[in-house]
Amino acid sequence: MDFSFSEEQRMLQDTARKFAQNEVKPLAAQIDLECDVPESIIRQMADLGFMGIVFPEEYGGFGFGEIGYCLVQEELSRACASTSIVLGGHESIGVMAIYLAGTEEQRQKFLPELCAGEKLAAFALTEPGAGSDAAAMRTTATEEDDCFVLNGQKTFITNGGVAEVYSIFARTDEGKGTRGISTFIVEKSMPGFRAGPPEKKMGIRGSHTTDIFMENVRVPKENLMGTRGAGFKVAMHTLDYGRLSIGAQCLGAAKEALDMSITHANTREQFGGPIARLQAIQFMLAEMATDVYAMESMVYRAAAKCDSGERFTREASIVKLFCSEALGRVVDKAVQIHGGMGYMSEYPIERFYRDARINRIFEGTNEIQRLVIAREVLTSQKY
Ligand code: COS
């Protein structure tokens, strides 16, 4: 298997690296402290084409596919997890749902301005009573004249309140289980739509996470995405992309944590020399490097499969499961190598440790990923 990147992909990687290191990294501590990714950062990402990098040019995207998207996410995540999550919530799930399930008219109407970053998107599936059991959702969409009237509450929505366009899942047909759910494009400006205040979080503090309340929101029928009743499959298909995105984000964070640990081990002196000469430290660095290598191999292998047009549900869940747990191991060792300094907010490793934890939870807990992988393995041909 060929793992080399094309010249174009390398140029994109280089652009993303320079932007992340020069513009995002210096602001990362402030983003965490002030719980906000500045508008100027989102504008610059838009100018560089990152807000639609994965999508075809005919819809205003940059045609780099999933490999290009993962390269950008990896670089951003080395600098600031909150910034990478604003991009992920927008591109890998919010806009992706419209691209995957929208009609040609919906794609033409919404994608160009979303890809240009003129508007931010979000994906609203989870509800207070429907997390892992997404099909238990209670938000309803009732057909009335030329509209669907939406009522209900969504929770833990990334980009909530700041996004202007939402891919929202609601029950259109009672008693039909997963086949009674449909997807709608809902705009923030629609009367009856309201976002709650941003949640206070352990990590990824700069990305806004809010509830969404809908009271008799009249959504035009032309905003029904794809076919009525196909919403659950739209959610699952979209989440395959979201889960792969998380893998790329974990990879970037793990590389940075490893680099910081190598630098620290080479400069911190104890017992008459740098701690890098101690085998206890060397073994931790070796294990971190092993995890990073495995993460990198699987993220781009899965992204290549995605770009080939093949179904990649199993790979996406494997990537999400492994990379989020590997990142947990890597940041834990990074804190250990940094010792007392690793525990202090003054040093970035403390933020990396807090930011890493969400990856084992969102876009399907790791318990759900194990379930998906087991189902895929048990229903496939020989391994
Ligand atoms: N792509 C396309 N279709 C898919 C799919 C995928 N990745 N995964 C499942 N489907 C289809 C199934 O084929 C099935 O189709 P049919 O009705 O034609 O048989 C349908 O969707 C229902 O799937 P399933 O029977 O597996 O549904 P379950 O209720 O058993 O739920 C889990 C499956 C638990 C895996 C699902 O609810 C899930 O992923 N939960 C986690 C939700 C989540 O990630 N939340 C985070 C929100 S975003 S922060």
Describe this structure in words.
There is one protein chain. This protein is α+β, with helices and mostly antiparallel strands and 383 residues long. The model has no long low-confidence stretch (mean pLDDT 97). It has three domains: 7-115, Orthogonal Bundle (Butyryl-Coa Dehydrogenase, subunit A, domain 1); 121-229, Butyryl-CoA Dehydrogenase, subunit A, domain 2 (Beta Barrel); 233-380, Up-down Bundle (Butyryl-CoA Dehydrogenase, subunit A, domain 3), CATH 1.20.140.10. A hairpin with a 2-residue loop joins strand 2 (140-144) and strand 3 (147-158). The strands form three sheets. It has a four-stranded mixed sheet. A four-stranded antiparallel sheet has the order 2-3-7-6, with helices on one face. The protein has a two-stranded antiparallel ribbon with strand order 9-10. It contains twelve helices and ten strands. Helix 4 packs across helix 7 (231-267), helix 4 runs antiparallel to helix 8 (279-307) and helix 8 runs antiparallel to helix 9 (313-338). The protein binds coenzyme a persulfide. Residues 125-126, 132, 134-135, 178-179, 232-233, 236-237, 239-240, 313, 362-364, 368, 371-372 line the site of coenzyme a persulfide (COS).
Short description:
With 383 residues, the protein is α+β, with helices and mostly antiparallel strands.
Features:
single chain; 383 residues; alpha+beta; Butyryl-Coa Dehydrogenase, subunit A, domain 1; Butyryl-CoA Dehydrogenase, subunit A, domain 2; Butyryl-CoA Dehydrogenase, subunit A, domain 3; 3 domains; four-stranded mixed beta sheet; 10 strands; 15% strand; binds coenzyme a persulfide
